[in-house]
């Protein structure tokens, strides 16, 4: 009576899974559990990589926007590139907020301008071991390190950008 209540699909599945030694169930578990675990790990690792790439691109774009805050009047008179640090940082934070679109929390750990008002000659090398950051500036620019918190992980994202005005 019970067998007649089962659908045709359920009866065929029951017949397929029925094995005298119960080995089908064991083989099934040995196959499915690792596949599900692999899919789970791969998906979340892929999401982490996607967040890291998106965060790095956002910080790079913001640094490139910040580096263009140089004083054109000083450049025209003295032929020196002098970047306004306050305007550059404001532009950096504005562009970072636009690029990250509020998905993550961020904090600017370091933001520095390397320009011709502070350096006598180029190239200039900057190295910060605590952030695993090193860059050799051939032209004036900015460098920054931003800490991002995606909710799943915290990461430090360094970036450097240089400005080169045509004719130099």
**Main sheet: strands, sense, barrel:** 3 strands, antiparallel
Specify Rg, calculated over alpha carbons: 28 Å
- The proportion of strand residues reads 15-25%
What sequence of helices (H) and strands (E) makes up the elements?
HHHHHEEEEE
On the 0-100 scale, what is the average pLDDT? 81
Helix % is 40-55%
* Multimeric state: single chain
Using the alpha-carbon principal axes, give the shape: elongated
For the largest sheet, list the strands in their spatial order.
Answer: 1-4-5
Low-confidence stretches: none
- Total count of helical runs of at least 4 residues: 5
Name the structural class.
Answer: alpha+beta
In total, how many beta strands? 5
Termini, distance in Å?
Answer: 92 Å
Structure description:
This protein has 168 residues and is an alpha+beta fold. The protein is 49% helix and 23% strand. The protein has five helices and five strands, in the order αααααβββββ. The chain has a three-stranded antiparallel beta sheet, with helices on one face. A two-stranded antiparallel sheet has the order 2-3. A hairpin with a 4-residue loop joins strand 2 and strand 3.
Summarize the entry for a quick read:
This protein is α+β, with helices and mostly antiparallel strands and 168 residues long. The protein is 49% helix and 23% strand.
Features:
alpha+beta; elongated; 5 strands; 49% helix; 5 helices; 3-stranded antiparallel β-sheet; two-stranded antiparallel sheet; 168 residues
Topology:
Blueprint: H1 2-5, H2 8-17, H3 23-67, H4 72-78, H5 85-100, E1 105-114, E2 124-128, E3 133-137, E4 141-149, E5 154-162
Antiparallel strand pairs: 1-4, 2-3, 4-5
Helix pairs in contact: 3-5
